[in-house]
Specification:
With 341 residues, the chain is α/β, with parallel strands linked by helices. It is built from 13 helices and eight strands. The protein has one domain.
């Protein structure tokens, strides 16, 4: 049984707990036009978010024209699928949007040189007039990877462009500013489809993708400067393709001094329990080059240590549980009940 399947089964019992979902939400919901027990009733999809953050998080996405993945009402409302990775990410991190003290208490565990979190003035103001400390679906203030040319449209956060699932920045003890681009996984797992190879004779998208990211990949003194085109081709398999794009976005943001950052790094969070994601290597040559290594172990071999960090959702949950204050305990308990697999 995959981790995704076990999570669906777990929700069959968990869904009935009133501290998580209302009785109305506990009815089966539609997903891909079929009734699913692991989905909330359609009209209660917003209950996929912790109650205290529900309204402000939905407004945050709406004000920035960010679409919820598989969301309802033209993606203006969160997905009703209880295994939604985006909702999981927001449930864990949205409380830090307006709470720099909480952000520092939690992430200092992983960034010991974190002196103080900094607001993200490049984002829009929140309804209270302040700027957020944690942002979501961040694509940067510029088209760093030249994706607009290929997409021929308006840049959108969270869709069609390389986006960090979350991002925050802080001043370090050495007085440098560090920007962190985050990738969040929940129940995802991937097949071995080569995204750089045309699936049919007239399919030009794979070639356009390869052309798109090649200039950043081959940049002199860039993060992949010691690797050539062969590795580039090997990375067009998920999740390596996502990791490469986010790592290249971090590289280009650092060169462009995004948010005045001196350092831009990638922070990856995924469940230790999701072995299908962590252990399956979808790129044939990478599997051959790095036998008996998982996805994240391989990635740490390919990029500099100071540019990539990976932790588990379990580690993050444990850290939150230890570092919350009394008034934050209800939120921590919600996370533990819902995601304490």
């Amino acid at each position: 049984m995959t981790f995704r399947d076990s999570e669906k089964e777990r929700y069959q019992t968990l869904k009935s707990q009133p501290q998580l979902f209302s009785s109305a939400a506990q009815r089966d919901g539609l997903y891909n036009k079929k009734s699913r027990f692991f989905c909330l009733a359609d009209e209660c999809a917003d209950e996929n978010l912790y109650e205290a953050i529900r309204e402000p998080a939905i407004k945050y996405f709406e004000d920035r024209d960010i679409r919820w993945h598989d969301g309802l009402n033209k993606r203006r409302i969160p997905s009703n699928h209880l295994c939604c990775s985006q909702c999981c990410c927001v449930n864990f991190l949205y409380p830090m949007t307006t709470n720099p003290t909480l952000l520092a208490r939690v992430f200092r565990q992983f960034y010991p040189d974190l002196k103080r979190p900094l607001q993200i003035h490049e984002d829009k103001r929140l309804p209270n007039g302040t700027y957020p400390y944690m942002t979501f679906e961040w694509i940067g203030t510029k088209d760093y990877l030249g994706e607009l040319f290929r997409k021929l449209g308006v840049r959108t956060r969270g869709a069609n462009f390389t986006s960090a699932d979350f991002a925050f920045r802080f001043r370090r003890k050495d007085d440098k500013i560090q920007l962190v681009l985050g990738e969040w996984k929940y129940t995802e797992y991937y097949n071995s489809r080569d995204l750089g190879a045309p699936s049919r004779p007239k399919d030009k998208k794979p070639l356009a993708r390869k052309h798109n990211y090649w200039p950043a990949f081959r940049r002199k003194n860039g993060i992949f400067a010691n690797h050539g085109e062969e590795l580039y081709n090997d990375l067009f398999f998920e999740p390596f393709y996502q990791l490469m794009r986010l790592q290249l976005l971090a590289q280009e943001m650092e060169l462009g001094r995004e948010m005045n950052a001196d350092v831009v790094s990638v922070f990856h969070i995924s469940p230790e329990a999701n072995r299908e994601f962590r252990e399956r290597v979808t790129s044939p040559r990478l599997e051959e080059m790095f036998p008996n290594r998982g996805v994240l172990e391989i990635w740490k071999e390919l990029v500099p240590e100071d540019k990539f960090m990976s932790i588990s959702v379990e580690e993050l949950l444990n850290t939150i549980a230890k570092r919350v204050r009394a008034h934050e305990r209800e939120w921590a308990d919600y996370l533990n009940i819902r995601y304490g697999w």
